[in-house]
Amino acid sequence: xxxxxxxxxxxxCTPGDFEGEAVVSNQPFGFWxxxxxxxxxxxxxxxxxxxxxxxxxxxxxxxxxxxTGTPGIFLEAVRNxxxxxxxxxxxxxxxxxxxALLAEAFFNVRIPIVDGLGGNPRDLFRxxxxxxxxxxxxxxxxxxRG
Length: 146
Description:
CATH topology: Glucose Oxidase, domain 1
Strand order of the largest sheet: 1-8-7-3-4-5-6-2
Oligomer: single chain
């Protein structure tokens, strides 16, 4: 990893802090039929991240492709310890935010979400970058390039 430190001010949607490796996509994402909740792997064959894992990653993507089934699948991933550790969006949809709120309510697991990322996710981050997310303050830090 090469050293790089950039800070972005986003809007905090759900509280918590997480530092980890980023997985970045320019495509919207739906957890319902998009993730295997037993492994954290992306199973949507139409998505560019198919085959990648979101388990314990900072998942950076533009916005959710919602379904009311999203929180159920997401909570199953949390129960199995296979959910993303944090989410960064250009615009967070209510179902994605609900996932993190329910994870804390049911399993006492905080998954910070920030949105308001200014611009195309891939213009700012790459898969493999080391990122810190603070969902309380909205601070988003690129710590190192992957």
